[in-house]
Specification:
The protein is an alpha/beta fold. About 40% of the residues lie in helices and about 20% in strands. The chain has 4 domains: about 1-30; about 35-105, Elongation Factor Tu (Ef-tu), domain 3 (Beta Barrel); about 150-380, 3-Layer(aba) Sandwich (Rossmann fold); about 380-510, ATP synthase alpha/beta chain, C-terminal domain (Lysin, Up-down Bundle). The relative contact order is 0.10.
Amino acid sequence: MEPELELELKAEYDRAFAEIVRVREAFTPKLQLQEVGTIMSVATGIAKVSGLPSVGQDELIIFPGDVLGIAFNVDDDEIGVILLGQYWHLQAGDEVRRTGRVMDVAVGEGLLGRIINPLGRPLDGNGAVDSHERLPVERPAAAIMDRAPVTVPLQTGLKVIDALIPVGRGQRELILGDRQTGKTAIAIDTILNQRDQNVLCVYCAIGQRASAVAKAVATLREKGAMDYTVVVVTEGNDPPGLAYIAPYAATSIAEFFMEAGRDVLIVYDDLTHHARAYRELSLLLRRPPGREAFPGDIFYIHSRLLERATHLSKERGGGSLTALPIIETEAQNISAYIPTNLISITDGQIYLSPSLFELGIMPAVDVGKSVSRVGGKAQLAAYRAVTGNLKLAYAQFEELETFARFGARLDDDTRKIIEHGRQIRACLKQPEFAPVSVSAQITVLLSLSAKLFDDVPLDQMTNAEHALTLASVDIPNEVRERLDTDKKLSDKDRETIIKIANKALARFRPKT
């Protein structure tokens, strides 16, 4: 046989054989090996499972009824699983299956304006979430070399915070205080103030009452803030596993926008419920308890969460994630285990005093116990020019006020310091859901610093400040542009603002 003919026949044979193999594979059923385990026991929010020898830490496991669980304790003979859904129908002997993936959540622009649970399922009745991308809920924090300094302020719209305890974009500022002292109100005010500021917001409600969440969402809707906000919700009657993963899921949603170069604000309301849910799960899974029955790694779960808040370098897009974690204290005890953990993790704290709240001083921020370790670097130059004297004057006033309460005889200088301090305190008061613009804040603070309010009766301070806020719209555009940027306030700018303030306050001063 000629070599050319032999090669041609061999090629034809190879083609025919390949076609036979293709047809046979098409009609051969695909067999897929899958590990199937068995539920050994079910308790409140957890299950013990056996028969999954290859399961990994934090892997998703599917239970009957499409209930999801996370492999948490991976031991030789059994696996402790955190359940993420309604588990009442589960019982010992039911089969469970591995998924081969870790817990993830839907992310994307389609989440803006939506209310979802930590699994990404909608809670607002507006249909399925429009998202084509998912991210793991547990992600490593950005490396040090991928981070940039905090240089841009995040305006809260609250005078006492923006002036005395400033927050920068990429900072982690803790809000703590006893029950019913206005912690959530500060967070909601901050979200409202991001309107037209090119900052997206994520509000994460952890183990909250349904009525409290509904009230917060209604406020956001009424003020038009839902257009740029995602709300992630777990209620008090949800399984503790959902409360545990909620802040991580919310952070992954926020990180999607941050990595796209956007500025994002995330509020964790509150991490006390998160810590308690984790303690409950740990004790049920027989993890060794430590101080106040919290497991030893409670510090780690919060630090790996809050370390994800940062300002990315220009090479990574320049986006930022600012975190406002909220913590509830008991009897003003800020030295308890969870508060001290979070104080050491964050870049400062805003402490709300029940004593100030009872006196009607709202927001009830205790300036003496509050601090911002980063935001001062990012504060606008106009604030730095007018707030230095105010901090000192307010601190002196708080020290001297105690003596005044006992009817001590005071000299003229001391009495003037106390009266000026009362004017400062009155100006720092602010009603809920009424954020103040930068130009209005600078006008009020500069007037305080120049002691223009000192002749105004204390009972007229609210009206006088309102008149001053309205008058701030008369500030020339070129001056207002300098206030909103990091340009220094010139003497001429000061004179212009003080002239407008004097004119607005003239009718509130007693006639001589």
